[in-house]
Automatic annotation (TrEMBL), chains A, B:
One of its GO terms (molecular function) is transcription cis-regulatory region binding. It comes from Kribbella sandramycini. The lineage of its organism: Bacteria, Bacillati, Actinomycetota, Actinomycetes, Propionibacteriales. The keyword DNA-binding applies. InterPro entries: Homeodomain-like_sf, HTH-type_TetR-like_transc_reg, HTH_TetR, Tet_transcr_reg_TetR-rel_C_sf, TetR_SbtR-like_C. Residues 23-82 form the HTH tetR-type domain. Pfam families: TetR_C_43, TetR_N. This is AcrR family transcriptional regulator. Residues 45-64 bind DNA. Keywords: DNA-binding, Transcription, Transcription regulation.
DNA sequence: ACTATAACGGAGGCACCCCTCCGGTATCAA
DNA sequence: TTGATACCGGAGGGGTGCCTCCGTTATAGT
């Protein structure tokens, strides 16, 4: 389903370089950045990223003139995947579809701190990512509400902030995180 | 009630200096630090704090040899107040007592980022603060559970992490924060 | 008033980060 | 093979923060 999607697109036009050596560096930088951002959040040191990639700092700046460019290149793809996951879940019954997607959402957020931060920072370029996530989640949530299985006095914004808040803080272990999340979602259910 | 409490004490023994000028600086540092920590979180720059206090960096280090010493001096007092609030709420009916205290808890956490961080960091000296908070909240929560008004399969640790998670992330406004918190607490209620 | 000394404050060494600039190098088309 | 050039890397200047050290100053007891 939806192979030729017209979903609001997250366009990043940082072009992969032409020359072979340049392409190698470009890719190394991307994966080093993915690693560093996941580990230290969006404030990870750019010099550290260049080091991890085994590349000079100059090369980093040539490919990604600003920190935002690098962040975008790394994360917009992943958020895109999240949006796709929402479409895939659409076949399930309303409540399962929603929780399935949220589970996926949580899995992402837990490891990729930047996604979480993108929900919590006031930044233009993150705005776009946030909107894409909301657009993806809204149909799922509205379906649940239409089925009378979730309280009507709640928005997707409420829901995602709730889930991301619970995901963004430390728990003793995964088991506790799931349990607490489950409890909070119980509050979302219509009674 | 409990004027001569034997509650686990948060002891900080950084002694206020003897000489008049030293005492002035000590106090100025404390309030500058309170301000800076609230504003920028526990990572606020020590040099900035000294500047705000109108004092040399050396003076800061003389009074508070480590960042932890300063943090402790600032926050343990406030956490102590939080614990007192729990005792005061004890007169109310179980569920109200708990939510009254949690409301207080939220009010603190929202403005004092360090308290929130103290729940989310792995640090020895915060451990102590965390334990004090837990000790204060446990009676309230257990009372609610005993009254059958909260689900039994949840601990005070679960509850506080849930609340602090929801408090620690941004909401559009206070109203949304309260609404979402209310929804999550609905999930805590026994059905 | 005078002095012993507690307390001051900021210069300075070290570390890290950001970003620019440019001499050197690897690539690729001819 | 070779030359034009796209691309490299890191030195270096500017900024901030941490913490120590020590010459200078204010205080308090006599």
């Amino acid at each position: 389903m939806a192979t030729e999607t017209t979903r609001p697109v997250l366009r990043v036009d940082i072009k992969r370089p032409q020359r072979a050596d340049a392409r190698r560096n470009f890719d190394a930088l991307l994966s080093a950045a993915r690693e560093a951002f996941a580990e230290k959040g969006v404030d990870a040191s750019l010099e550290d990223i260049a080091r991890r990639a085994g590349v000079g700092i100059g090369t980093l700046y040539r490919n990604f003139p600003t920190r935002q460019d690098l962040l975008s290149a790394v994360y917009f793809g992943e958020i895109e995947e999240l949006c796709l996951a929402a479409e895939e879940a659409a076949d399930l019954p309303p409540w399962e579809a929603l929780t399935t997607w949220l589970r996926r959402f949580v899995a992402y957020v837990a490891t990729k701190r930047a996604i979480w931060e993108s929900l919590n920072r006031e930044s233009d370029s993150f705005q776009e990512a946030r909107e894409a996530m909301y657009a993806a989640g809204t149909p799922l949530f509205e379906r649940v509400q239409a089925a009378g299985e979730a309280r009507a006095d709640m928005s997707i914004d409420d829901l995602l902030r709730m889930v991301s808040g619970l995901t963004g803080c430390n728990f003793v272990d995964e088991e506790q995180r799931d349990r607490v999340l489950q409890i909070a979602l119980d509050g979302v259910r219509a009674r």
